[in-house]
Amino acid sequence: MQSPPPFVLAQAGTEGPQANGKIMDALSLFGVFAVTAMLVFYALEDYSRWFILAFAGACVLASLYGFLQGAWPFGIIEAVWAGVATHRWRNRMLTSRAA
Predict the structure, then answer these.
(1) Residue 85 within any structural domain of the chain
(2) Which helix H or strand E contains 67, and what residues bound it?
(3) Does residue 3 lie within any of the structural domains?
(4) Are 39 and 62 in contact (CB under 8 A)?
(5) pTM (2 decimals)?
């Protein structure tokens, strides 16, 4: 008997994360993507100012994930981080034009 692939989307209405042999639902997969993107773009911020903007975008995705899955404090904090990152990107843009 074959085991299911590691990231199979669960059908709506299933009970628990491993119902019917499914490991992750679409919302969880979206959350993993958003937080992984945040980590990667944060690590790359020193290489280009555009990675700061990408980090802000990933924070927006993580905020959306937080609100969708019902963890509104996480959604609020990630929205604040998106604002902070956007502000840092704007400052970096202004300082690079002034130089």
Answers:
(1) yes
(2) helix 49-68
(3) no
(4) no
(5) 0.75
